[in-house]
Amino acid sequence: MKKSLNILLGSMLLLTSCGKDFLNTLPSEKPSTDQVSDAGKDDPSVLNGYILGIYATMYSAFSGVPEIEDHDDFGQKGFDVYMDLLSSDMALGSVNYGWYSDVVRYNSTRDYTLKDAEKPWRYYYKIIMAANYAMDAVGGSEIEVPAEDKETRYVIGQAKAMRAYGYFYLANLYSPEYGTGNDKILPIYTNTQQPNQPLSTTKEVYDLIISDLETAVEYLDGYARSGKHKVNKYVAEGLLAYALGARGTQADWQRVATLTEDIVKNGGFPLTTKSQTAAVFNGGPMPVNTDGGFNNIATASWMWGADITLASNLDLVSWWGQIDYFTYSYAAAGDPKVIDKGLFDKIPANDVRKKQFSSGLPINKFYTLKREPMEQRQIETDYIYMRVDEMVLLNAEANAHIGNEPAAIASLKSLLDLRLDNTTYLSSLSGQALKDEIYLQTRIEFWGEGKSYLAMKRNKATVTRGSNHLYLAGQSFKYNSDEMSFPIPQVEIQNNPQID
């Protein structure tokens, strides 16, 4: 019974989407919440298996709009590429197969009928509704679980973190502004029995995100996860820091400083080393350092990620396929993704991160161990979702916002000492110049990891495309322009009568 139920739960996740009509898809294949709850009483690992199904959705191919099987649709890392391209820090080197062409031309952010606008919406609502399903099975998301019932607290803690994760990315991708405003942006669903819901305000969405993450941090205290694919207390704190920074009040930034300091000091994650940052060569064709490539979840600085194995069944349709020259797929076959020339030119010559790129290609940042062109057919290199270096730069950003500039510089210096030969220039920075430097270093450090878009919106920045963009080269776009966020997709408007 346990095995068959877990298979059913896992397959259900790939069928669930937002809206009442989507929730009724193949209802005979879904166990009821009562069935799951009863099974969980007999064997608590059943509920843990359900949570694992949520995590599997994060890297599954066609997890956004499965019926069309687009090759840019593969969970969180797929939408990391969307965000890097929207922010313009990533550029298409050429377009032979056409993936992402509507994204980079900003057609997808201006036309609600295009599937690119639908994929993130359906993916993140799948995560949200799956998290609601898990919480409904143990009494609902509003119950207060006593401290002694650790198993239930761990289930709800992870589910609430994942629900908040879904709403956070939706709020980024489908709203032009962060904050506490009254713009109506998203429907909120907090259980699986709700009918179609109207749009809630930015404030209501962020209030739910932050409340969920605060509970997650509390409930996951003491949780010893079995792998980095799961959310623990420190990952939940990291998500909470991102959400608070996005809302961006002074009180929020103070909390971001406190949360990120806790992660850096107590999480047990050392910073990504200089050796791990870029391939190092000594006259031969292969790197002399064996710890580079951003390909191994065992890397100590990684806080959250996916351990990709042959059983994950990933090949052409994967992040590695779209980004990595050494994987048999689009990046090497004619659709390369390269760094924006304007950003590359801002990286100092003595910065190890300059060496990550060759002719704009990130072949010395992201690579397989064999480094043979188009060698990796079945994906075995891992996915990264969060690393501690993000928390260091968020800490610097937070301290700069609250006026604690010495602390901001200290955090920034702790990372850049591992990237640059000389960081004495940092001591001269203050005010907006310091904030600008933190933003620049965030863009450089996390190129290709899906973080530049979030930083662009936090910093209310304007992006200008470099000369190597195929489309709209030299043009500038403000963070809250129509080009920078998706419209609510046509399918949602058609199926949800609560949305005008």
Automatic annotation (TrEMBL):
Its main location: membrane. Keywords: Cell outer membrane, Membrane, Signal. PROSITE patterns: PROKAR_LIPOPROTEIN. It is found in: Cell outer membrane. GO terms for cellular component: cell outer membrane. Gene3D superfamilies: 1.25.40.390. It comes from the Bacteria. Residues 348-499 form the RagB/SusD domain. Residues 109-237 form the SusD-like N-terminal domain. Belongs to the SusD family. This is RagB/SusD family nutrient uptake outer membrane protein. It comes from Sphingobacterium humi.
